[in-house]
């Protein structure tokens, strides 16, 4: 068994394991997304962008993350 504790979460309907203690900002970065260009819903509640670095990912969380793309 690994010494590193992980949490089991869902991101946009896909199962994922992440390190315990990770913040939502860390999750967004791990996904390769720009935190200034995403909207995050955690367990059916919007996570304000200003709090992404404060909110911890918890075991069983369900995330929907939308990445905004500019263009014309």
From TrEMBL:
On the tree of life, the source organism's domain of life is: Bacteria
InterPro entries under this entry? Beta-grasp_dom_sf, Mopterin_synth/thiamin_S_b, Thi_S, ThiS/MoaD-like
Protein's name in the database:
Thiamine biosynthesis protein ThiS
Q: Which organism is it from?
A: Sphingomonas astaxanthinifaciens DSM 22298
């Amino acid at each position: 068994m690994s010494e590193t504790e992980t949490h089991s979460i869902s991101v946009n309907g896909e199962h994922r394991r992440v390190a315990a203690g990770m913040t939502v900002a860390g999750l967004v970065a791990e996904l390769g997304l720009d935190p200034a260009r995403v909207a995050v819903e955690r367990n059916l509640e919007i996570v304000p962008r200003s709090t992404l670095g404060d909110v911890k990912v918890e075991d069983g969380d369900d995330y929907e993350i939308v990445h905004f793309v500019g263009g014309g």
